[in-house]
Specification:
By secondary structure, the chain is α+β, with helices and mostly antiparallel strands. Helices cover 53% and strands 14% of the residues.
Length: 153
């Protein structure tokens, strides 16, 4: 709720309240923002995640998704998912709003992914391309099943 400037450090900080899963009111403080606008953006994103509003950025939802699935899968599987998401999906969809991703966007993304090459210049195998697409599908399906996204694009 409050964005204030720390006089000692010259940096901005955010203090906001939320209710955890038990209904207990908690305070969240985040420090170290160079600009007030960065602090306000972080506060806005935090509130959207707290309210489970699907009008959030895709990158913010991915953080929520990863925290939801981490305790349910093996650690190496989690690391593989995270790597694929961070290197192949977030660069394309990270800045977009979750509820604004359409099937045409997914097709364009698939076309871009098929153009990518390994370090040695070879194209990715069809199996790996399917694995990448499965990660995007898993994220969107999680949004539909758990957070009331209308459809998964």
């Amino acid at each position: 709720m409050a964005v204030i400037k720390n006089q000692k450090t010259g940096m901005w900080e955010v203090r906001t309240y939320y209710k955890d899963w038990t209904g207990t009111r908690r305070q969240k403080t985040k420090r170290g923002f160079a600009k007030k606008s960065d602090a306000l953006e972080w506060e806005r994103a935090f509130k959207l995640k707290d309210e489970l509003n699907i009008n959030m950025k895709f990158a913010d939802f991915v953080e929520l998704y990863l925290s939801d699935i981490q305790p349910r899968i093996k650690y190496n599987s989690y690391l593989t998912k995270k790597h694929i998401i961070e290197t192949k999906i977030l660069p394309y969809f990270g800045h977009r709003k979750l509820n604004e991703i359409r099937p045409a966007d997914v097709i364009q993304w698939q076309n871009e992914i098929m153009k990518l090459k390994k370090d040695n210049g070879e194209a990715y195998s069809p199996t790996y391309l399917k694995t990448i697409h499965n990660q995007l599908s898993a994220i969107l399906n999680h949004a539909v099943n758990m957070y009331d996204l209308k459809d998964n694009g």
